[in-house]
Input
Amino acid sequence: MLKYHQQFGGIFKMNLGFFKSVQIGDPALLEILLRMETPYPKRMEIKPWKMYREYRGEDYGLLTLDGKYNAHQMMEYLGPLLVTSADLHKQFNTKAWKNHTEAWDYIFSTAKCFIDRRLKSNPAWKNDLLNTITSNYPLTNKQLSGLFTELQIGGVETTANSLLWLLYNLSRHSEVQKKVLDEIQTVLLPGQPPSTDCLQKMPYLKACIKESMRLTPTVPFTSRTIENDTNLGGYLIPGGVIAMINFHSMAWNENYFPDAREYKPERWLKPRTLANSFASTPFGVGKRMCVGRRLAELQLQLTLCWIIQHFYICTTDNEPCKAITSGLMVPTRQLPVSFKKR
Output
């Protein structure tokens, strides 16, 4: 999408089959849009997901309320159903609909299996997330499976993918790894596990994660449904139109980030010089920002700290690794990364 914004500017209209949208790649326009939001802003409806739940009689999770297959494969199958009529795919039982349905069937069956097993497990494990939820809220097993399947997609896949890109970026910059290790050794004693308090004293480690999420964002876009006729950038956007917010295009814009395609964690340690703080928002911003942001950041910080303490992150080849967007931004090949014990 970056090349389209370079050609057409910070806002333009794009029609893909049945999908009509306004594309936003300007942080100033994004700020205006978000400041005009209603108390309950709407994202683009993921209609195929809702249709699957109605088709199978499953419950909704947080995303759909407003093995053989995995969440990554399900996201791959989603694309064709968004830009063409999902109703027609379902009516004619096309291959795209079958793949989408089979992927969700597998995800739901796996979730139900683990939920049932966990609820019947050893009482000593009753302080985990699942049992905390069931102890405080009268949810049925059906509601729990609807919640946890989307938790896997919205939390597990995204955080894991962010970690992959982080390791890839660090494998290409041994000098950055050394700086992270020096910082860790300044804060922690040999063999001491990191704590949240210790992480507050590791700004460079956090900068490495932030820079990776700018350069290779797992979620390169989000959406809003324009609820009322809105003037944005001198254009009148009718109510009901989908606004696609392209994080990746803004984060690779040289106007906001000099040497935008280079991995430079140091840029986040300087006094704030961004022309607009909305230029890099990998977790989104506003009322619909990622609900798991703090948990994801903590997981990445703890994981990176442990890995750097114990391993060198090495690259196995120097060929660039391209990315494709399939719901998430994923590498086109196996990442050329290996670990060498310190």
About this structure: Residues 2-341 form a domain with the Cytochrome p450 fold (CATH 1.10.630.10). The first strand starts at residue 11 and ends at 16. The chain has a mean pLDDT of 86. Strands lie at 11-16, 19-24, 221-225, 230-232, 235-237, 242-246, 311-315, 323-326, 328-331, 337-341.
